[in-house]
Amino acid sequence: MFVQSNTLKACLDYVKSRLENQFSASEIRQIQREIFYKMFQFNATDLILKGDYRLTESELLLVRDVVKRLQNHEPLQYIIGYTEFCDLKILCDKRALIPRPETEELVWKILEATDKTDQNYLDLCTGTGCIALALKHHRPEAAVWAVELSQDAFNLAKKNTQILNLDINLVEGNALLPDQIVELKNKKWSCIVSNPPYIPHAEKTSMAPNVLDYEPHLALFVDDHDPLIFYKRIAEFAFQNLVQHGKLAFELHENRAAQVAQFCTNLGFSAVEIFEDLQGKQRMLLARL
User: Fold this and answer.
1) Are strands 143-148 and 120-124 parallel, antiparallel or unpaired?
2) Does the pLDDT value for residue 193 go beyond 80?
3) 53 Cβ partners below 8 Å, 6+ apart?
4) 123, 172, 195, 200: which sits with the fewest CB atoms below 10 Å from its CB?
5) Could you give the CA distance from residue 160 to residue 96 in angstroms, rounded to a whole number?
6) What is residue 1's predicted lDDT score, i.e. its pLDDT?
7) pTM of this structure
8) Cα-Cα-Cα-Cα dihedral sign, residues 144, 109, 33, 27
9) Beta-bridge partners for 285
10) Spatial separation of the C-alpha atoms in residues 246 and 191, rounded to whole Å
11) Residue 3 has pLDDT above 90, yes or no
12) What is the reported pLDDT for 217?
């Protein structure tokens, strides 16, 4: 047997011993919680008080499989199959980027900046659909549109809409060519939002393997010669297609926040604001037409 016994405590110790050279102590505690909360429905109290609980052989093998995949740098969200996002359970796998806390922060900023009078939201580069679905969940009276180029990601977003039973308008299309997307023609938007590709290919060497080896490069990388290309094109589209006082929202590359803000200001947006995430990095922008 690969663990000393089949008790919960032995399994927790196994996870820690196999991962302590790869993750920090706080990360390991989070991994333990994620595995045993989401895969076995143990709560925080159980992990403390039920150390003698005995797992079945199939449960032990599942724990070992998860640990092996983590050792190979596979993201835990992909292993578990979903993540929590703005009060929703979002399916995620290698077809789309993992919804991250800073993206969740962006959604909360949008909800703070908009209200029930804002009737039309557009999410470009939707990926899993997490932003569009969260907006629809919290603004059920609004019409929400979501655009995705990747067929794989589109199918994942569609699955999320079905499971969550949230009625958003999913469209296949290129966020760099939004004027050519038939379904978007002759529409005006209260808010346009995007978490677009923004990492130059030159930064690949500094990226962690759990991102570089597993998450889709189409959603991550842009050409080194024009790393702001998505921001520019989407901002230009928004300037022409937002209603009066409509809002534009971006997730940002922390090193290019000022450049994106300046472009939006030069374009004619007012009240362009950059917001820091919980780590103090400049990761969000809101602008008003």
Assistant:
1) parallel
2) yes
3) 7, 8, 46
4) 172
5) 12
6) 66
7) 0.94
8) positive
9) 250, 274
10) 6
11) no
12) 95
Phi, psi of 285 (to 5 degrees): -135, 135
In the numeric block, the tokens 């790393």 are attached to 227
Q: How far apart are CA 231 and CA 147, in angstroms?
A: 15
pLDDT digits (tens, 9 = 90+) for 51-70: 899 999 999 999 999 999 99
Distance CA 53, CA 26 (A): 24
Of the candidates 197, 195, 136, which has an alpha carbon nearest to the alpha carbon of residue 169? 136
Q: Averaged over 189-216, what is the pLDDT? A: 95
Two structure tokens written together for 280: 């103090």
Could you identify the residue written with the tokens 């290019």?
Answer: 256
**What percent of the chain clears pLDDT 70, i.e. is strictly above it?**
100
As a three-state string, the secondary structure of the chain is CCCCCCEHHHHHHHHHHHHCCCCCHHHHHHHHHHHHHHCCCCCHHHHHHCCCCECCHHHHHHHHHHHHHHHCCCCHHHHHCEEEECCEEEECCCCCCCCCHHHHHHHHHHHHHCCCCCCEEEEECCCCCHHHHHHHHHCCCCEEEEEECCHHHHHHHHHHHHHHCCCCEEEECCCCCHHHCHHHCCCCEEEEEECCCCEEHHHHHHCCHHHHCCCCHHHHEECCCCCCHHHHHHHHHHHHHEEEEEEEEEECCCCCHHHHHHHHHHHCCEEEEEEECCCCCEEEEEEEC
Q: What is the mean pLDDT of residues 175-180?
A: 96
Q: How far apart are CA 52 and CA 71, in angstroms?
A: 26
pLDDT of residue 47: 86
Beta 82-85 vs 88-91: how paired, if at all? antiparallel
pLDDT in tens, 71-117: 999 999 999 999 999 999 999 999 999 999 999 999 999 999 998 88
